[in-house]
Amino acid sequence: MNITEIWRYPVKTMAGEKLQRVGVGPLGIEGDRVVHVEDAKGQVITSRSHPRFLGHRGSLDTHGEVRVDGRLWDSPAVAAEVVDIAGPGAKLVRFDGAERFDMLPLLIATDGAIAAFGHDLRRLRPNLVIGGVEGLTEGEWPGGCLRMGNVLIGVRDLRLRCIMTSYDPDTLVQDKEITRSIYRRFDGKLALNCFVIESGEIAVGDEVQFVRG
Question: How many Å separate Cα 203 from the centre of its chain?
């Protein structure tokens, strides 16, 4: 098995960026989900209720600054677009704490499960894609660990999927049948909620070994 894709989402609920190499710390991939959207009352907003955010892409520049569609995340132009999508008082907020994650800091998908899913893997919003995995073998991994170089990842459980899987990542057209099919065919669960045990650096192509708990 090996790492075939690495994804980072600097702005939670927006599209992410595909990487070749990245550092992994105690809170997952460095720079992941460090900016989020809040409404006028300070409540976190996601694409579950405002899917238009999926049409914007977060990234980190060479200085580690978060950008939205190439513009600094705190620029007036970006602020105006956030208000246009989420309403008056909505804004982007930077926050590096562990609470920024809905579940655990890492979501890992496997090529076997993606093939069984039969749709664009970006609908699953994984951080890592692992290749060389047969079928739905990922369902046997909770409670074990994944070793990739000097990084050790713990696997907790399968991710219960939400309505965001129903949106096409390019057109934003919704097809609720895709989400229904996840519940019908996979008991609602695809990809793995994971956490970091040993930090380090990973790259596309790195060998991955499964270690039973």
Answer: 17
